[in-house]
Amino acid sequence: MKKSILTLACALITPLAFAQTSTTTTEQTTTTAPATTTETTTTYSAGTVTTYEPGKTIVVKSEQGPVSFVLGTAARIVDGAGRIVTAPLRSGQKVKVYYTGNGEKRVVERVLVEE
Predict the structure, then answer these.
(1) How many Cα neighbours within 13 Å face the side chain of 99?
(2) Does 36 have pLDDT greater than 60?
(3) Is pTM, for the whole model, over 0.90?
């Protein structure tokens, strides 16, 4: 009887004696990219609307002649109080077009309707 109890005890303890422990090491690295700065300047052109295609382009006749602008997705048309204008622009309306870029790549940020 003692022999069978001793054998049973050894059988229960043996797996614990030979069990291996594992160690997990986690390493966290942080990399930083060099900072780049992009400078954009916003300028405006004042004049009267000659052509307006909602969501596409606006052409304004200014002192330099007709100037074409691309209406970006973020372009807002506002009145003097800063309220958004929902009515489409009409030919002959006085506006200030605030834009970025130059040449063929003038992108409108905001159109201020002066009337």
Answers:
(1) 24
(2) yes
(3) no
